[in-house]
TrEMBL record:
It comes from the Eukaryota. SUPFAM superfamilies: Immunoglobulin. SMART domains: IG, IGc2. This is FCRL2 protein. PROSITE patterns: IG_LIKE. Residues 36-120 form the Ig-like domain. InterPro entries: Ig-like_dom (IPR007110), Ig-like_dom_sf (IPR036179), Ig-like_fold (IPR013783), Ig_sub (IPR003599), Ig_sub2 (IPR003598).
């Protein structure tokens, strides 16, 4: 079940084969609510956020509770969206990749942000 499944629903049934009639129920309104997002956290590989120049950096975003979170990745000081999904992989990191990273999780109804994690390229 997804948030976009909210709407008005009814059912229709075949009542009498001889009369060839269908009967339709009264419509009902269904509203799907998401579970509020809580406990958004970020983990860094290698541990400690220190990565050697040219190596790979992997950031992972997790949500303790919530409905179908979609993650987006951000670095402080950069207005650009770095990526989407539960993981962000930066291959062959350079000096410009040092900084404070965070992820945002959204279920379409609400949004929550992780604490920042400092990444240092050595």
């Amino acid at each position: 079940l997804q948030l976009h499944h909210s709407g008005r629903y009814s059912c229709r049934g075949w009542v009498d084969a001889e009369l060839s009639s269908w009967i339709q129920s009264a419509p009902v309104t269904v509203r799907v609510h998401g579970v509020p997002l809580l406990g958004v956290s970020l983990s860094v590989q290698p541990p400690g956020g220190q990565v050697a120049l040219g190596d790979c950096l992997v950031l992972s975003c997790t949500v303790a509770t919530g409905t179908g979170p979609l993650s987006s990745w951000h670095r402080e000081g950069s207005g650009a969206l770095l990526g989407t999904g539960p993981h962000l992989e930066l291959h062959h990191v350079g000096d410009k990749d040092s900084g404070h990273y965070h992820c945002r999780a959204s279920d379409g109804d609400s949004m929550a942000e992780s604490p920042t994690s400092n990444v240092t390229v050595l």
